[in-house]
Amino acid sequence: xxxxxxxxxxxxxxxxxxxxxxxxxxxxxxxxxxxxxxxxxxxxxxxxxxxxxxxxxxxxxxxxxxxxxxxxxxxxxxxxxxxxxxxxxxxxxxxxxxxxxxxxxxxxxxxxxxxxxxxxxxxxxxxxxxxxxxxxxxxxxxxxxxxxxxxxxxxxxxxxxxxx
Length: 164
Known about the structure:
Layout: H1 3-25, H2 29-33, H3 43-61, H4 72-91, H5 95-99, E1 101-105, E2 111-115, H6 116-140, H7 150-163
Helix pairs in contact: 1-4, 1-6, 3-4, 3-6
């Protein structure tokens, strides 16, 4: 992975998460918080989990950041701040930074570590997994989810560069 590829895909995952967050904001609180037995219990719970993961991985690779809450209001207020942090961090990436080995504790307290480039790929992949689950939950409610496919992001990016 190159610094440019890391920047591109961090921006993709942020774009996709923002689109989905906009879509769920239109739901009733009951629909957002309805327990459905998928992933992290509800639409809101699943997106709060993605926000938490974005936050914790950011703190591991880039530095301290205040822990966000897991309400819709916190997602709308705090998640964009975390995303901007990821983007600003990625704007100054170097090959050496991507290769840097980061030590961390896993959920059970086990010490572990990984190079930054693997963490970046994990953050993107993790968000994609859970956004897909939220899209399934939206479909179960009869709501058409936004298109957050990676190729859609690439096409939108190319179109915006063509008109610039």
